[in-house]
Amino acid sequence: MYAHRWTGGALVAILALACSDDGKVLAPNDASEATLRLQQEAPTRRPFQGHFAGTTAPGALCGEEAWEMMILCQGRGTATHLGNATLDLSACWDMAAFLPAGPVSATFTSANGDQIAMTANDFGIDSQTGVMTGTYIIDGGTGRFGSAEGELHVTGQHFPDNTWTSQVTGWITY
Fold this sequence. Notes:
Blueprint: H1 2-17, H2 28-41, E1 46-61, E2 68-79, E3 83-94, E4 99-110, E5 115-120, E6 124-125, E7 131-141, E8 149-158, E9 163-173
Antiparallel strand pairs: 1-2, 1-9, 2-3, 3-4, 4-5, 5-7, 6-7, 7-8, 8-9
């Protein structure tokens, strides 16, 4: 009798594990398909590439020192997952050290209005050559990019007339 109860309990546990969300018992192939479906729904790292060009303009003072000024960059270009897109970037910039004095925030906006939000960890411009480098962390967005994550590496050139060009490579999940 005791063995019978254990067998019945094990059967109930197995059936409970093999049930779908709507309470129907899954056949072995259905359970495999459900597992595969869950694996396919997990975010996948997708390659990201783009090219952008634009302008930089000074804004208002932004820090505690007179040489800390808000820098506003706007650009246009194309990128995977976005198509034609715009780029808006803002940073409080230490003009004496020629480095960001705070966070560098940027947003890509696709033609349909979906956005990717980013923050730079180590953005910089060489004051002698104008070479730009940076690593951006993607931390969400809007539309299909609402839960986006990723990392983008930017290289580019900033010119004396306050124009710039850049190339972006990295990955994104959404």
